[in-house]
Structure formats: structure tokens, C-alpha cells
DNA sequence: ATTTTTGTCTAACAAACGTTAGTAAAATGA
DNA sequence: TCATTTTACTAACGTTTGTTAGACAAAAAT
């Protein structure tokens, strides 16, 4: 049982850390803040984690892992480019909405990582972005997407689907799947080749 | 001349502060960092500004002012909704690319403001967002935009055009006007009513 | 029953923080 | 030239920071 409750405590600390880092920013959130939220003393945290930055690292890299796993899942399924893009967006939105705190840290607080973890993290992010580029390139070949600056499009897409985390509320009108569909329509409307009659 | 050089020094401090706040985040950037960058001592800054937060406030509210001025300029010109949206996007992108540091602070570091300035700032942001909502509503009436969740669309648009600040480089391939046009096309493609034959 | 492990505590540390006080130098105006 | 204003300096302050050391209690394992 010590094993189980230990894991649970460790996870509890990380979850509260993510919440706090999101709320106040990594630099402004103190170990005493975190401890208070957990009902313990700051020193006690060091029994579970060896530094404040280790908490940040865990959150950032765990999320990076999940995003990349999603991307691989998409490419394992042999759909056309449009379906791949729609699935990518759906998984992305679901991951974000199901882990809002950790996602916020992954999306904005990673800048506080110090080398060499910082470079490693950037590399993983790049890896994920590349998956989207591949999908868009495929779509261009399949002639279902407009010819466009691929990198430009990927960044625009990601910025849009990442921003979900800043307005999504669990008790809101739309559920994640609906949000993903709306976003996909919005984005694809901008990508899909129009009938020649209007412009 | 004392007047002039005083203003210039004051501006120099704010500009370097914006650069530093963007680079390290407000909380992580120290007054000693800022002083070192200026070639003076930390205490000397307090002759020009009474606190660190005053610097943040100046950057945030100066930029808010500029964004809102832009929005008013757009509404003073009586174009149709599509032209209004295109102009809004253009002015937005130009403002961002011409003030990358201050824009980054305006976009992300405002969370470090403390009350009551924080509430005031949020109010100004809301004011700016509302201008976009009005344009989209007009476009719906004029029947040139698809019927869509207006708030959803505005947030998607803003997230996309704000994200420009994270990848734009002054020496890059595209100039601000070109970026604005591409973004407008991308966004409008998603908004504009399609010919009925494709979906 | 006793040892070991686990989780927490109190106390304190050195370093870094924003900021203030008082002083000196440099620029400006008479 | 002298007085005034502007700008910077040195030195230090009181806090807050992340973190460590060592003790103590509870739980688990032997």
C-alpha cells in the first residue's frame, strides 16, 4: 500500500503544481504556495521531488509524450489527408481539454526550463509540428488542399487549436468533440479548394 | 535639452524592459538584469520609474491604447465587413511586427499586473475584442460571412493573428503587409460563404 | 517485537529579490 | 563662475526565494 499511496501523493503534487504554474506562472509560483495548497510544509515536497524544476520538467515532457503519441496514432491509420487532419485536431483538442492545467504549462511555461532540457523540449515540439506539415503536404499532393505556405498554415492551425485552452470551460456549451469539429470546419474552409466560381 | 534626454532615457528603459520581460518573463526578469542591460545600477532605475510594476503597466497600457486606436480607425472608415476585417487584421499585424517586444508583454505578461490595474486591463482587451465581434456580426447581416458562432470565430481569428508574434522575424521572407494578406485569405476562406456545390 | 521505510515536521541557510537613503558627479542655466 | 537640476552611484534594508539538515511519528516489513 505504501507503493500506491506514494504514487498517488506524487501525482497529487504534480497536479497541484500544474494548476499553480498555470495560475501564477512558474516563476511566480513558490514552493510554499504549492505546499500550502497540499496542506503540508514546503520542505516535505523535497521528499518526493528533488527540485522545483523537476516538477516543471515532468509536466512538460509528460505532455510532449502524449502529443507525440497522438500524432503517431494518426499516422498509423491510413485515411486521406483531410481525415488525418480532422483526427489530429480532435485528438489535440481532447488532450488539451482533458488536461487543461498541464497543457497550459506545456504551452507557455516551458520557457522556464533550463538547458539542456530546454533544447530537448523544443526538439519534441518540432517533432509534433512536423507531423502536421506532413499531413498538409499529403493534402496538397492529393489535391484537396489549396497550394499554400505549409509552415505558415501549420503555425496558424496550431495557434488556433492551442488557444482553445484559454477559453474552454468544462461546464461550457460545447464539448471537446464539438469544438474539434467546429475548428476543423473553420480551418478546412480556409484550406480546401474553393469552387472556381467564387474567386 | 534636459527634457529631451530625460525622455529618451525613460523610453530606453521601457524598451529594454519590454525586451527583457519578453525574453525571461516578467517575474523572472530582475531589476538588476534590466540595469545591467542599460549599463547602470539597479537603484538608478528608480529615479525614472517608481517600481518594477510601473514598467509593466506602462508597456501593457500603451499597447492597449494603440490597439484600440486602430480599432477606432477601422470603424471610422465605412467599408463593408470584409474590408473592415482585412484592415483590422492588417493594422493588428503591423502593430505587432513593429513592436514585437511590447506586443509580447501585452499578449502574455499582463497576467502579472495586480489589482486594480489588472481588471482595467482586461476591460480594455474586451473592448478590442468587441470591435471584431461587431465586424463579424455586420458581415453576417450583409450575408458575406457564413452563419457561425461569433465569439468562437473572433477568438480563433485573434489567436491566429496574435501568434504571428511568435514566429515573425524582421529579416524573414514576408513583410507585415504580406503576412496580413495571407492571414486574411486564410481566415476569410473559412468564413466566406462557399458556393453551394461543394458542401 | 523490532527494525526499516516513508512522510512529514521545525529550523535554518545562503542567495536573490525589490526598494530606499544618502551621496557624488555630471549637465544645465544664470 | 556658481547654483540648480538631473542622473547615477554605493550601501544597505527587510523579505522572500529554493533548498538542506536533522528529528520525529506513523506505517510496513521482518
Descriptive notes:
Two copies of one chain form a homodimer. With 199 residues, the first copy, chain A, is mostly helical. Helix content of chain A is 73%, strand content 0%. Chain A contains nine helices and no strands. In chain A, α5 crosses α6. The longest helix of chain A has 25 residues. The first copy, chain A, is elongated. Chain A starts with a helix and ends in an 8-residue tail after the last helix. The N terminus and C terminus of chain A are likely disordered. At the A-B interface, α8 and α9 of A face α8 and α9 of B. The structure holds a DNA duplex (30 and 30 nucleotides).
Backbone structural class of chain A: mainly alpha
How does the major sheet of chain A shape up? none
- Give the oligomeric state of the chains in this entry, treating copies of one chain as homo and distinct chains as hetero: homodimer
Helix segment count of chain A?
A: 9
Task: Give the H and E element order of chain A.
Answer: HHHHHHHHH
What is the average per-residue confidence, as pLDDT of chain A, rounded to a whole number?
88
What's the shape of chain A? Answer: elongated
Q: Specify Rg of chain A, calculated over alpha carbons.
A: 20 Å
What portion of the residues of chain A fall into strands of 2 or more residues?
Answer: under 5%
Amino acid at each position: 500500500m505504501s507503493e500506491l499511496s506514494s504514487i498517488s501523493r506524487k501525482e497529487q503534487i504534480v497536479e497541484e503544481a500544474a494548476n499553480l504554474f498555470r495560475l501564477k506562472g512558474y516563476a511566480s509560483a513558490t514552493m510554499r504556495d504549492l505546499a500550502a495548497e497540499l496542506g503540508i510544509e514546503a520542505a516535505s515536497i523535497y521528499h518526493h521531488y528533488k527540485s522545483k524544476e523537476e516538477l516543471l520538467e515532468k509536466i512538460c515532457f509528460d505532455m510532449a509524450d502524449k502529443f507525440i503519441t497522438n500524432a503517431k496514432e494518426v499516422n498509423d491509420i491510413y485515411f486521406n489527408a483531410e481525415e488525418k487532419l480532422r483526427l489530429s485536431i480532435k485528438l489535440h483538442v481532447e488532450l488539451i481539454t482533458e488536461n487543461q492545467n498541464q497543457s497550459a504549462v506545456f504551452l507557455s511555461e516551458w520557457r522556464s526550463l533550463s538547458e539542456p532540457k530546454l533544447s530537448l523540449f523544443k526538439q519534441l515540439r518540432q517533432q509534433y509540428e512536423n507531423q502536421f506539415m506532413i499531413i498538409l503536404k499529403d493534402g496538397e499532393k492529393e489535391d484537396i488542399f489549396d497550394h499554400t505556405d505549409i509552415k505558415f498554415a501549420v503555425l496558424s492551425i496550431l495557434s488556433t487549436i492551442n488557444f482553445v485552452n484559454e477559453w474552454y470551460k468544462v461546464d461550457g456549451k460545447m464539448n471537446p468533440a464539438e469544438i474539434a469539429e467546429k475548428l476543423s470546419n473553420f480551418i478546412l474552409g480556409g484550406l480546401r479548394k474553393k469552387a472556381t466560381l467564387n474567386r
